[in-house]
Amino acid sequence: MNSITLHHVIPKFFIPKTLDNSQSIWKKVSTFKKGHFYIIIAPSGSGKSTLANAVLGNHFEYEGSILYDNLDLKSLSIEQIVNYRKNEVQLLFQDIRLINDLTIRENIALRVFNKKNDLFETKLLAYAQHLGISHLLEKKAKNCSYGERQRAAIVRSLIHPAEFLIYDECFSHLDVENKEKAFQLINKVAIEEGSAVLFFELNDFPFSHDYNQLNL
Ligand SMILES: Nc1ncnc2c1ncn2[C@@H]1O[C@H](COP(=O)(O)OP(=O)(O)OP(=O)(O)O)[C@@H](O)[C@H]1O
């Protein structure tokens, strides 16, 4: 998939306060392209999770359309949408969604549970080390802090990355140093893979970057 386009999208269940803001992407045409990098900055309650979940095909509670290349998401079957999640589009949900009773290693490996490949193990170890969670790999997720689980979820998102990587406030529990490390890792993997990255954030990152900035 080469692009995801928002075509006059506006949520059905609330009217965004920022609708009249000329920077806002509601009710406009915006295209996210493979290999490009975006940060969408918007205040609490402005619809970041609503839009991120809509782009994943988790709900259709909006007017307008979301296109995967030229295909309207609303015209796809559940099976087709699920297939897109294997290699084309993936979302790291704001609430992380690790399984409490599995270890951090098992949670990360879930992304590739039916694929045997030494490369995944190499990546898992390298990325865990980069984010400072190597010592937590055999620990159950429920016994880790929120920030530790957030870093584990970021590793999970990168061991078999899709073409469009979407992150909904994925650094919310990280200190500035860890935020920057996580950002650099996501950026590096996305460049290597040719993926697009879409960050949904409350505020801009506290370090310099050259991502395209959009607002809701
Ligand atoms: N299923 C739903 N039905 C009705 N209203 C909803 C539903 N889901 C979200 N909302 C409302 O839509 C608005 C946007 O919510 P959303 O979670 O998308 O915002 P957000 O920008 O991600 O916020 P935050 O930064 O606080 O996580 C909120 O006012 C929320 O209460």
UniProtKB/TrEMBL annotation:
Annotated ranges, domain ABC transporter: 4-216
Organism domain of life: Bacteria
Family: Belongs to the ABC transporter superfamily.
Protein name (database record): ATP-binding cassette domain-containing protein
Coiled-coil segments: none
InterPro entries: AAA+_ATPase (IPR003593), ABC_transporter-like_ATP-bd (IPR003439), ABC_transporter-like_CS (IPR017871), ABC_transpr_LolD-like (IPR015854), P-loop_NTPase (IPR027417)
Keyword S-adenosyl-L-methionine: no
PANTHER family assigned to the protein according to its UniProt record, in alphabetical order: IMPORT ATP-BINDING PROTEIN (PTHR24220), LIPOPROTEIN-RELEASING SYSTEM ATP-BINDING PROTEIN LOLD (PTHR24220:SF689)
A Pfam family hit: ABC_tran
